[in-house]
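Appendix B, record 7
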Amino acid sequence: MGKKIATTFWFLIIVFLAILSFFIVSTFREMERILFMYMMILAGIFFILGLILLILTIKMKVKRPFKFFLLSTGISSTAFLPSIILHNFYYALYIATIQTPILNYSAEILHVAFFLFAIPICPILFLIGAIGTIILLIKKRKY
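C-alpha cells (predicted):
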C-alpha cells in the first residue's frame, strides 16, 4: 500500500470519528444547531477523501486483499453524502406530491431506500473496509 493511500485512509478514519462524535454530541439540542455547519463541512471532506481513496486504489493497482477493503471504504465514504442529499430531495418530493398517489409512492420508496443506504449500509460497509484494512496492515507488519 502506497504512502498516499495510507495517508488518505488514516485521514478518512479521523473524519469518520469526527462525524460519529457529532451524533453523540448532538443529543444536546443547543449544541446541534451550533455544530451542524461543521458536520456539513466534515461530510464534504469525507466525500472528497473517499473519492481520492477510490482513485488512488484503482490507479496504483493495489493487491487483492487490500484492494477489496480499500474499495469498500472508499465507496461507502463517497456514497454517504449523495445518499443523504438524495434522501432529503425525495422526502421533500414525497411531501410535495401528497395529492398525487403514484408520484407520492415512488418518492416515498426512494427516500426510504436512500435513507437506509446512507444511515446503516454506508457506515457498516465503511467499518468493514476500515477494520479489514487495519487488520491486513497489522498482519503485514508482523512478518
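Remarks on this record: Residues 3-142 form one domain. The CA atoms of residues 67 and 94 lie 39 Å apart.
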